[in-house]
Write a structure and sequence with these properties.
Blueprint lengths: L7 E5 L3 H14 L2 E5 L2 H10 L4 E5 L7 H9 L4 H4 L3 E5 L4 H9 L4 E4 L4 H49 L10 E8 L7 E7 L5 E8 L3 H21 L3 H16 L5 E8 L5 E7 L4 E4 L5 E4 L17 E4 L5 E5 L16 H7 L7 H15 L9 E8 L2
Parallel strand pairs: 1-2, 1-3, 3-4, 4-5
Antiparallel strand pairs: 6-15, 7-8, 8-9, 9-10, 10-13, 11-12, 11-14, 14-15
Length: 388
């Protein structure tokens, strides 16, 4: 880095002999050189065609170097305001140095001018100018990348928003509520409900690895796979097997997601539960106790073949089940440790009057347990309560 064929230096000095000497030094070193006799001409020249660097005499009649710099530095055009400037002064000593720097100079050279010192300081300022230019270019590229990322995330958010149900299904005798709180615009959690061929309703939830657009794409795939599995099979474990097979055929073992589904017979209250590496299903009884049903298999995508086991449960009037992702446990810290499934189960009691009240109470209590800090993970939850 240093001088380039295009580096042009503007010399502003009221002394004609000094100007000629400087021009000869600069030209012999390989720089292009333009000369002006005073501060007014200096401002006119640098605004007409900004140079790479300005050599500016401190003591000039009419408008001195400090006044020129003051006008230049406040110019709205950054290409002018940020021109590196070396002040030329005939006054030695610290006071003169301070005056030059306070005026806005990047450096100074005292007269009589030492050619080696002048060349070295010009090279330094041009090198710094080149570095600033590169940094600005990198910042501009970073800003463009950020804008593109935000556009991508917004597109992913709208896509994911269209995938997540906006209102619960209508099931006579049942009250249903759900919520989704991503860490950023989009996340790796998703849930849904599907009508099974035998008339039951399949409630399902999944948590894909990661955050952002890549995780959102996995949730899109998860919804497609659960829809396909429910259309092809009529038992929860068979649906989970189909989702696992299709997911692994796409990613191998490079990605995975936890999931849980509940096949509910709305008429009888009987349900079958299957989990794959997912936090336990919680069943809150109206009598004041809460049961936990753990996953029977590892996360989807880890193994080519997993053994999925169904657990049957019966819900009586007033009972509810709670599906959620592990983001609800929080990050944990000294004052408030990370929630456990057993502590979460305690939060479901006493039973709330409806599913929305139950959901809001638990999710808000979990957030408060994390000390009001930003959630470290996406949170999704579904509460399904049988009416009294």
């Amino acid at each position: 880095m240093g001088k380039k064929p295009t580096d042009r230096i503007l010399v502003a000095d009221d002394d004609a002999t000094s100007r000629k000497l400087l021009a000869r030094i600069l030209t012999s070193t390989g720089f292009d050189c333009t000369q002006v006799p005073d501060g007014f001409e200096a401002l006119k020249a640098l605004r007409a065609d900004p140079p790479s660097l300005l050599l500016l005499d401190f003591d000039m009649p009419g408008m001195d170097g400090a006044e020129v710099l003051k006008e230049m530095r406040k110019d709205t055009n950054a290409a002018i305001a940020q021109i590196p400037t070396i002040m030329l002064t005939g006054h030695g000593g610290e006071e003169s140095e301070v005056l030059c720097l306070e005026a806005g100079a990047d450096d100074f050279v005292t007269k009589p001018i030492n050619q080696a010192v002048l060349r070295a300081r010009i090279e330094t300022q041009l090198r710094l100018r080149s570095m600033r230019s590169q940094l600005q270019k990198q910042n501009d590229e970073l800003e463009a990348w950020r804008r593109n990322l935000e556009r991508d995330l917004e597109a992913a958010r709208l896509t994911q928003q269209s995938l997540i149900p906006q209102k619960p299904p209508t099931l006579p005798g049942w009250d249903i509520a759900a919520c989704y709180r991503p860490v950023i615009q989009v996340g790796g959690d998703i849930y849904g409900w599907l009508r099974m061929t035998d008339g039951r309703t399949l409630f399902w939830i999944a948590d894909a690895t990661g955050h952002g657009a890549s995780a959102a794409l996995l949730t899109t795939l998860a919804k497609l796979l659960f829809h396909h599995g429910t259309a092809e099979h009529n038992e929860p474990k068979e649906i989970m097997e189909a989702v696992n097979t299709d997911f692994r055929s796409i990613f191998g073992a490079r990605s995975f997601m936890t999931a849980m589904c509940v096949a509910l017979d709305a008429a009888t209250g009987r349900a079958s539960v299957v989990g794959a590496g997912h936090p336990p299903l919680l069943v809150a009884r109206s009598g004041g106790r809460t049961e936990s049903i753990a996953s029977s298999a590892p996360p989807l995508g880890l193994l080519e073949r997993s053994e999925f086991v169904e657990t049957d449960v019966s819900l009586e009037p007033g009972d509810a089940f709670f599906l959620y992702t592990d983001g609800i446990y929080g990050s944990g810290h000294d004052e408030n440790p990370r929630l456990s499934s057993s502590r979460l189960a305690e939060m479901l009691q006493p039973m709330a009057e409806n599913a929305q009240a139950l959901l809001t109470r638990v999710v808000d209590a979990a957030a408060m347990n994390d000390g009001g800090k930003a959630a470290p993970d996406d949170v999704a939850a579904v509460a399904v309560r049988r009416s009294n």
